[in-house]
Write a structure and sequence with these properties.
Layout (H helix, E strand, L loop, with lengths): L1 H28 L1 H6 L4 H8 L6 E3 L2 E10 L2 E7 L2 H8 L2 E2 L3 E2 L1 H5 L1 H5 L6 H9 L8 E4 L3 H10 L6 E6 L6 E7 L12 H11 L13 H4 L9 H11 L8 E2 L3 E3 L6 E3 L11 E2 L1 H6 L4 H10 L1 H10 L7 H4 L14 H7 L10 H12 L3 E3 L4 E5 L5 E3 L5 E4 L3 H16 L14 E8 L6 E9 L6 E10 L1 H7 L1 H12 L2
Parallel strand pairs: 1-6
Antiparallel strand pairs: 1-2, 2-3, 4-5, 6-14, 7-8, 7-19, 9-12, 10-11, 13-16, 14-15, 17-18, 18-19
Length: 485
Amino acid sequence: MNQSIRSAWLAAVAMFALIFGAISYVQVVGADELNDNPWNQRAVLADYCKDRGAIIVAGKPIAESVAGDETCSFQRKYTQPELYAGITGYFSRTYGASGLEQELRDELAGSSDQLFLDRISQVFLGRQAKGASVELTLDPQIQKLAYDLIPDGQRGSIVVTNPKTGAILAMVSKPSYDPNLIATHDVAKEQASFEQLNKIPGINLNQSVSGPTGALLAPGSVFKLIDTAAALNSGKYNKDSELPNPASLPLPGSSASLPNYAGGNCYTRTTADFAFALEQSCNTPFARIALDLGQEAIADQARKFGFGQDFGDQLKLQSAVSVFPPDLDDAALAQSAVGQRDVKATPLQIAMMTAAIANGGVQMKPNLIKNVRAPDLRVISEPEPEVLRNSTSPAIARQITEWMTGVVSKGIGGGAAVPGVEVAGKTGTAQLGDSGLNNSWFTGFAPANDPQVAVTIVIEGVDVTTGAQLTSPNAKKIFEAVLNK
C-alpha cells in the first residue's frame, strides 16, 4: 500500500513539474519566440483591431490603419500596394504578418518598450494606445522607376543603395501582389485571395522572405569581383598580372570543360590582364585564379563581402543567407569561381558587395529605417550610418573600381554608360541548365570617383539578348534619375 501511495505521489509531482515547466517556458523563456512567430494567431488577434502606426515613405503613408467595421475598429490599408508589397508585407487576421508588418510589429502596434510611457498616458486618458509610425529611407520616385523597369510578367529584382551610408533608396521585385486582398475583414475573401496569389509563379506568401532579400540565385560573372579581390589580396597577383585565357579550361578530374564567355571578345586573346578579363567577362582566367588560390581563399573573400550572413537584423526585414558552398573539388571550384554550380546569392547581397567596393572597401550596414516616431511625433529612433565590416583594402577597392569603369566604357557593360559621368559596373550571365535561359545581372555605381548611388539588377529566366536589354540600359536610367535629383 505504501509503495502504491509513493508511486502515485511521485507521478503527481512529476506531472506538476512538467506542467509548471511548460508554463514557465511559455511565459518566460519562449515568450518572445512565440510572440514573434507570424503564425501565432493569438498575438495577431490581440493587435488586429488596434490603431497601428503607419509605414511612411517621403512623408506619405504606404500602410496605415483606417476605420474598420462593426467587427473591428480599424483595418489595414496599403497605398500603391504592389509597389511596396515586398517591403511592407501583409497584416492578416488569418495568416499573420510578413515583411515590416511582422519585423516591426512591436513598434507599429505600440507595444515596444520605447512606447511604455505613451501607453500609460493613454490609459489615464481612457484612450486606446496607438502605434508608432515608421518612415523608410526609400525614394518614391526611384522606387517607382525601378518597379516599372521590370516588365509585367517578368521575374526580377532591383536594389538601389547609397554606398556611403547603407541606406536603401529602392528595393523592388516582380511579380508582386496587393496586400489589401488579405488585409480584409471578410475571412472568406481573405482566404480565397491568399490561395489564388500563391498559385502565381514567383509569389509564395507562405515564405518569410522573397524578392531582393530572399531570391537565392546563381550570381554568374558578378562573382568575378570577389575572385579579383581575393587575387589581389593574396599578393600573388597585381594590376599588371597576365592571366591565361584559353578558349576552354579542362575541369580537373572530369571529362568536361569550362568554356570562355562567348558574348564578348575573349576569343581574341590567349592571355589577358585583369582589365580585359573583366571588361569582356572571360571565364577561364578567373577559374584558373580560383584553382591557384584554393577554395578557402575564395570562400574567405566571399565571407568578407557578406556571404553566409543573415542581414535581417540590420535591415529589419528577413533575409536569406547567400552561399558559397564548402567541400568543393577542383572542378566544382572552377565552376563556382564564375558564379555557377551551387553558388547562390540574393540581389541584396550583390548590392552590398558592390557598395563595399564603391565605399573604399568598407561595407555599411543596410538600412531601410529613416526614423521611428511616437504617436505625438516624437522621434524615438533614428538609425545612424554604421560600418558592418571592412571587405577589402582601400587600395584594392580603388583598383577594382578602375577596372569596373572599363567594363562600362570599353566592355560589355556599355549600356550603363551615362554621358559626362564615369560609371563602374559588372555584368553577369548565369546559365539555367540546358534551357538556353539565364539570370541576367548588372551591378555598379556612379560616379566612380565619388559614388552617390549603387544599383543591382537581376532579371530571371531570359535569353542573352533580353537580359542585356533589361539590365545595363536600365541601370543607366536609374543612375541618371538619382544623380539628376
